[in-house]
């Protein structure tokens, strides 16, 4: 697990490890994505951000405008599904910090260039108006809804045929997480839910979400998919589910946990 902490942030050095990005892709050689400074050639266009400590080594994420020679590109989503939980947090944090650094070149309040980084925090300090800009984190809810022995699964318009997942969405200003669960389920499939329970959370770096996972139970209403978001939605028997997300993702984890909960109830 990566050690985040608030200790002084070092500059890139020879003993550190490096994650390399280009064009929103992770750079790899074979199956390797953690490199030493001697494995690549820093350029004037390369940007770097300190991530924390991993396996007692300082880790930096560096991103290039173009892929250096000798490296292959691999999509972060694909890589996350191929790796283990051991590396998941490291890759996710690296991607989020690189996105923050790239998206905060100028102050959003006064428009001046952001050139000063806080020595201990992940923050950029505007030298003109003194405001601090921290990495953006966007909370989202994701919920597994149960009705007796059935689980609600939906296929978004963007998903391939036969692939179903949980209901999810961004939390709006002034809204509690539980209110977001109720609203998103109603907006996307037209039903009311009750008995909302927090289960787990997961950072999701596409590009800067924090996914907060819940269980909920059906209360009332008929499934009515939102035409602009959901292609189809159905109740599925817990022991006969369609193609669902990989358990590396919190969506897949929630579905597996819901299946286990229903199966346990059946054994009582």
UniProtKB/TrEMBL annotation:
Query: Pfam families annotated for this entry?
Result: NUDIX, Zn_ribbon_NUD
* Superkingdom field: Bacteria
**EC numbers for this chain:** 3.6.1.22
> Which terms are listed as keywords in the entry?
Hydrolase, Magnesium, Metal-binding, NAD
Q: Name one GO molecular function term.
A: hydrolase activity
The yes or no answer to whether the keyword Magnesium is present is: yes
Q: Which reaction does it catalyse?
A: a 5'-end NAD(+)-phospho-ribonucleoside in mRNA + H2O = a 5'-end phospho-adenosine-phospho-ribonucleoside in mRNA + beta-nicotinamide D-ribonucleotide + 2 H(+)
Q: Does the keyword NAD apply?
A: yes
Domain Nudix hydrolase as annotated: residue spans: 135-258
Reported cofactor(s): Mg(2+); Zn(2+)
Which NCBIfam families does this one have? PRK00241.1
Q: Which family does it belong to?
A: Belongs to the Nudix hydrolase family. NudC subfamily.
UniProt-listed PANTHER family: NAD-CAPPED RNA HYDROLASE NUDT12, NUDIX HYDROLASE, NUDC SUBFAMILY
What name does this protein carry? NAD(+) diphosphatase
Classification lineage? Bacteria, Pseudomonadati, Pseudomonadota, Gammaproteobacteria, Lysobacterales
Encoding gene, per UniProt annotation: nudC
């Amino acid at each position: 697990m990566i050690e985040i902490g608030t200790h002084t942030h070092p500059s890139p050095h020879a003993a550190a490890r490096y994650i390399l990005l280009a064009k929103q892709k992770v750079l790899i050689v074979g199956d390797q994505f953690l490199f030493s400074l001697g494995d690549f050639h820093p350029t004037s266009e390369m940007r770097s951000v300190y991530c924390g400590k991993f396996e007692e080594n300082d880790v930096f994420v560096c991103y290039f405008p173009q892929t250096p020679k000798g490296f292959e590109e691999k999509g972060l989503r694909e890589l996350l599904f191929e790796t283990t939980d051991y590396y998941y947090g490291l890759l996710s944090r690296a991607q989020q910090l690189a996105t923050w650094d790239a998206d905060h070149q100028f102050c959003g309040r006064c428009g001046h260039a952001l050139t000063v980084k806080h020595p201990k925090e992940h923050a950029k300090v505007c030298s003109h108006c003194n405001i601090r800009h921290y990495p953006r984190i966007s909370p989202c809810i994701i919920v597994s809804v149960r009705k007796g022995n059935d689980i609600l699964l939906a296929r978004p318009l963007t998903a391939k045929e036969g692939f179903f997942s949980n209901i999810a969405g961004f939390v709006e200003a002034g809204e509690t997480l539980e209110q977001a669960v109720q609203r998103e389920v109603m907006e996307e499939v037209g039903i009311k839910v009750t008995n909302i329970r927090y289960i787990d959370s997961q950072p999701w770096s596409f590009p800067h979400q924090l996914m907060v996972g819940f269980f909920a139970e059906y209360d009332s209403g008929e499934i009515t998919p939102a035409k602009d978001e959901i292609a189809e939605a159905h109740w599925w028997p817990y022991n006969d589910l369609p193609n669902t997300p990989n358990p590396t993702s919190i969506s897949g984890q929630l579905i597996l946990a819901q299946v286990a909960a229903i199966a346990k109830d059946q054994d009582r």
